[in-house]
Design a protein that fits this description.
The protein contains 13 helices and 13 strands. Helix 3 packs across helix 4, helix 5 runs parallel beside helix 6 and helix 11 packs across helix 12. The protein is globular and about 60 Å long. The model has no long low-confidence stretch (mean pLDDT 97). One of its GO terms (molecular function) is L-serine-pyruvate transaminase activity. It holds the Pfam family Aminotran_5.
Length: 377
């Protein structure tokens, strides 16, 4: 291939029609009423994509902005917040809670398995006095996927607001925001939507907005304040100038998703075939259960350096994968098969390059990994 094939778990490749949309002539989004209509329509499309009637807002900033904005807007000093974690990003919510004066309580789980529903129920029977709870849909450092369809209704029954980071899930995994009782669902442009990084978007329930409005103290931020966005359309006022070209590109990316009827099935087939090929060829998937449709994480074989594998694939085959970070640094390799990357052609070529790189450094495969992939797809 003549150019780098980006097969990381986000950012992903960007389709040509999205790139061309971003090149369109722009206007002054602060005063052009036509842009307010365009922004509103893009938010409406995102609501369809998320299966929600809740308000949706697009913010200027990478996905982490959405995570912090949710915590900044809901957290008051002394608030007890439940952090449901089985991964690096799940745990990271606690840092945002502390920044805004809250007290995080961690429900910790085996990081190689999805959150245990029965253990969570038992935990909540003993203590459910939390303003809100956070959980990650797909924690990309390890690739573990959580059953938010079961977890969020349990939390809501206890009167706990639910905040879900689905940055690496939505578009590749089923997501039913309203049916699953998600108060704030967080997404970003650069994962399954396959738009460039730089935007985060959130669906916000009326319960979440009421919690923000009933605060005793003002939200301790402006840029991370979700409440200032509530009446933007009625007032024809944006809190800050929107990045118009990015939003035009996002709108086209959402159109691409809405026009594809079997997007979840496509991701599921690619992910299942990828895992089957990896295991049958002799490699080991890092997690034990809770496999995601969007990223596969492989244990690095003993005696092999992850950075050398990554460099060899890039230098010799033009394929970019990545390792991980935190406690997983140096221990795993991550392949992203999300959005524009979740195709037979791209994933099969990536597996071919992976096999060649590992063989170069002395690893012996049981079987040809690409052949197995094509058998299972």
């Amino acid at each position: 291939m003549n150019k780098t094939l980006i097969m990381t778990p986000g950012p992903t490749s960007v389709r040509e029609n999205v790139r061309l949309a971003r090149a369109k002539e722009t206007t002054n989004p602060d005063i052009d009423e036509k842009f307010y209509e365009f922004y509103k329509e893009t938010c409406h499309k995102l609501g369809i994509f998320l299966n929600t009637n809740n308000e949706v807002r697009i913010l200027s900033g990478e996905g982490i902005l959405g995570l912090e904005a949710a915590c900044a807007s809901l957290t008051e000093r002394g608030d007890r917040v439940l952090i449901i974690e089985n991964g690096i990003f799940g745990e990271g919510f606690g840092d945002f809670v502390k920044i805004y004066g809250g007290e995080p309580f961690y429900f910790r789980n085996n990081r190689k398995r999805k959150v245990d529903i029965e253990e969570l129920k038992s935990f909540l029977e003993k203590d459910s006095n939390f303003k809100y709870a956070t959980i990650v849909h797909c924690d990309t450092p390890s690739g573990v996927l959580n059953d938010i369809d079961k977890i969020c209704p349990i939390l809501k029954e206890k009167g706990i607001l639910t905040v879900v980071d689905s940055v690496a899930g939505m578009g590749g995994e089923e997501l039913q925001v309203d049916n699953w009782k998600i108060d704030i669902a967080l997404g970003a442009s650069q994962k399954c939507l396959s738009a460039p990084p730089g935007l985060t978007f959130l669906s916000i329930s009326e319960d979440a907005f009421q919690s923000m409005e009933n605060r005793k103290n003002p939200i301790a931020s402006f840029y991370c304040n979700l409440l200032v966005w509530k009446d933007y359309y009625k007032n024809k006022w944006f809190p800050y100038t929107p990045p118009i070209s990015d939003i035009i590109g996002l709108d086209k990316a959402v159109d691409n998703l809405l026009n594809e009827k079997n997007i979840i099935e496509r991701h599921d087939k690619i992910a299942s075939a990828t895992r089957a090929a990896i295991v049958s060829a002799g490699l080991k998937i890092h997690i034990e259960e809770g496999y995601s449709n969007t990223v596969t994480v492989i244990d690095v074989p003993h005696g092999i350096n992850d950075k050398k594998i990554i460099k060899y694939m890039l230098d010799n085959y033009g394929v970019m994968i990545t390792g991980s970070f935190g406690y997983l640094e140096g221990r795993v390799l991550r392949i992203g098969h999300m959005g524009e990357n979740a195709t037979v052609e791209k994933v099969s070529y990536t597996l071919f390059a992976l096999q060649k790189a590992l063989e170069h450094y002395g690893y012996t495969f049981y079987k040809d990994i690409v052949s197995i992939f094509f058998e299972r797809i």
